[in-house]
Description:
The first copy, chain A, is mostly helical. Chain A is built from six helices and two strands.
Amino acid sequence: MTKPDRTTALIDPLAGQLGYELRRAAAAMMTAFGGELEPLGLRPSEASMLVLIGSNPGRTQSDLGRALRIKPANMVPIINRLVMSGAVRREPGEGRSLAIFLTDDGKAIYRQVRKKLLRHERRFSRRLSRDARRRLIDALRSICSEACRGLDF
Amino acid sequence: MTKPDRTTALIDPLAGQLGYELRRAAAAMMTAFGGELEPLGLRPSEASMLVLIGSNPGRTQSDLGRALRIKPANMVPIINRLVMSGAVRREPGEGRSLAIFLTDDGKAIYRQVRKKLLRHERRFSRRLSRDARRRLIDALRSICSEACRGLDF
DNA sequence: TATTGTTATACTCTATAACTATA
DNA sequence: TATAGTTATAGAGTATAACAATA
């Protein structure tokens, strides 16, 4: 039996690592966003989709899914829940495709979500200068496109 | 029946949003990291824990969990799997606590994971200048600490 | 009693495979 | 046959509640 050290601070070899810090920051923002959405009864994925639909009424489910990199199989429950909540309606389109629209209720929720999103973004951008924010977004995009090199998306 | 528009590019109202771009970049890096770990039979959470243990041998399970913000209930299966794979062993410590160590096999895997982590970080930092990387990490930390304001961690 | 660990369970997002329906 | 949508299912991370064991 060895006595475990419980006084010395732990060494965190992950601190300062890009992937690690990125993951933690993203998780933190996501958790906060989820909390803000709770009163609306929406999950982050549903709220994102609602906003996308509001900006692109009448587009097909598969187009919407592609835009947010959500697989068709995972689009189904997202749209289903939005339909069941009365925010969205499906209309038959060409072929098997379904055109997605916001209902009047959905438009009201859409405006609420946009407002929450704005506040959320502002809260987390507050400490960043305009320039710093710009650079941060650029860096994030470059990371994203690096990951996508050689992949299908 | 309304004909869905399938020619015009979609408007992405989430593009340029901090939370959205952050989430995508983090998911991209995480997916890439998961792929690199596959040959080792480790999940990202297990690999992270292995690296933490290697840098802090003999610390308790709860200390390790706190360091990576992993809840005690979620630590159990992570350590279990590392033990079952032969990389880690538990030793009884003070009270109910368990001191965690790498086995000799675990030390070999640890070195492999560190190497993979280094390559991974380098790959995604390549396009960033030393300064840009520093600023990025700082921004990520400021986002993290903003989220943690008013919370327990 | 306070801390540590464990079990069970549920939620959210993601992924694949196999299927149906339509042009 | 190619595209769109659906179903079922599994994996990964995270969360809570309830419980056991130890000092």
